[in-house]
From TrEMBL:
Highest taxon listed in the record's lineage: Bacteria
Family named by the database record: Belongs to the class-II pyridine nucleotide-disulfide oxidoreductase family.
Protein name: Thioredoxin reductase
Top EC class for this record: oxidoreductase
One Pfam family per UniProt: Pyr_redox_2
Length: 322
């Protein structure tokens, strides 16, 4: 087993983690990035990316993450194919252990483990991801301009997604398995007042229907949760909006988390409840959840980390001089 020691240890290799690594490397912190169970993050499962600044043409998510990784390595980042299973944040350097037994010591730690969208768990849903089925209206709504779309869910996320999609579509249907929404009252009022949104109550999606060939999604097969009656609605796009799982189980009991399990950070920074530990990207952001905002907070985390180390080193020098 090997012990790896770095000034800045980064967990997660999506836009947040790699942006933190790029800035950290350029600040001389020689970061190590532990890539985790999904190297490259959620963008590696995304096909067309049209909203990441700097590219005039549509690019592919896996290609973008490949370029980010190459850039991080070019400026001095070490990438490790490992998954962390154990953490000790009680003292610096922070100590983490990978599933293969290697130990990672970091003078500072940047958590960029992300969050995963919750899905319905249907076989047809999995088969149609990227072919009409999405979990992010802000990411993919633009591709459905003038088309008929449906949002599945009943909380804040679903209502916000439905309202957002009205920027692109005049025919938005919200499908909810109950007869009332969980969303905040003000969001419900906006939803019910919008002429372009129809709500279907007491309905569950049983199948995402593939039109065959290159047609992609053409309809949703529904079941009434009260009567059991089956029905069908024709759609071009289906957006599953039933929430996200932040990847924070590893830190439960070690860091302050909010009620939804996201890492709590100080407003306007990436500082967590443990000095020297910083969080960026979707693991601490349940509002925006975009690649570009994740990259931005990755930059913030690296700058916060560099300043923290500089302050610690100055303090140690001052104490040694006394």
């Amino acid at each position: 087993m090997t012990t790896h020691h770095t000034r800045m240890l980064v967990l997660g290799s999506g836009p947040a983690g790699l942006s933190a690594a790029i800035y950290g490397a350029r600040a001389g912190m020689k970061p190590i990035v532990v890539q985790g169970i999904q190297p490259g993050g959620q963008l590696t499962t995304t096909t067309d990316v049209e909203n990441y600044p700097g590219f005039a043409d549509v690019i592919q998510g896996p290609w973008l993450m490949e370029q980010m990784q190459k850039q991080a390595e070019h400026v001095g980042t070490t990438m490790m194919w490992d998954t962390i299973t154990e953490v000790d944040l009680t003292q610096r350097p922070f100590r983490l252990v990978g599933d293969g037994g290697d130990t990672y010591l970091g003078d500072v730690l940047v958590i960029a483990t992300g969050a995963q969208a919750k899905w319905l768990g249907l076989e047809s849903e999995d088969a149609m991801k990227g072919k009409g089925v999405s979990a992010c209206a802000t990411c993919d709504g633009f591709f459905y301009r003038g088309k008929k779309v449906a949002v599945i869910g009943g909380g804040n996320t679903a209502v916000e997604e439905a309202l957002y999609l009205t920027n692109h579509s005049d025919d938005v249907t919200l499908i909810h398995r109950r007869d009332s929404l969980r969303a905040e009252r003000i969001l419900q009022e906006r939803l019910f007042a919008h002429p372009g949104i129809t709500v279907l109550w007491n309905k569950e999606v049983r199948e995402f229907v593939d039109g065959g060939g290159n047609a992609g999604l053409v309809a949703l097969e529904l079941e009434d949760t009260v009567t059991g009656e089956h029905s069908r609605i024709d759609v071009d796009g289906g957006f599953v909006a039933i929430g996200h799982h932040p990847a924070t189980e590893l830190f439960r009991g070690h860091l302050a988390l909010d009620d939804d399990g996201y890492v709590s950070v100080e407003i306007g920074s990436t500082r967590t409840s443990v000095p020297g530990v910083f969080a960026c990207g979707d693991v601490q952001d349940k509002v925006y959840r975009q690649a570009v905002t994740a990259a931005g907070t990755g930059c913030m985390a690296a700058l916060d980390a560099e300043r923290f180390l500089a302050e610690m080193e100055f303090q140690e020098m001052a104490e040694a001089a006394e």
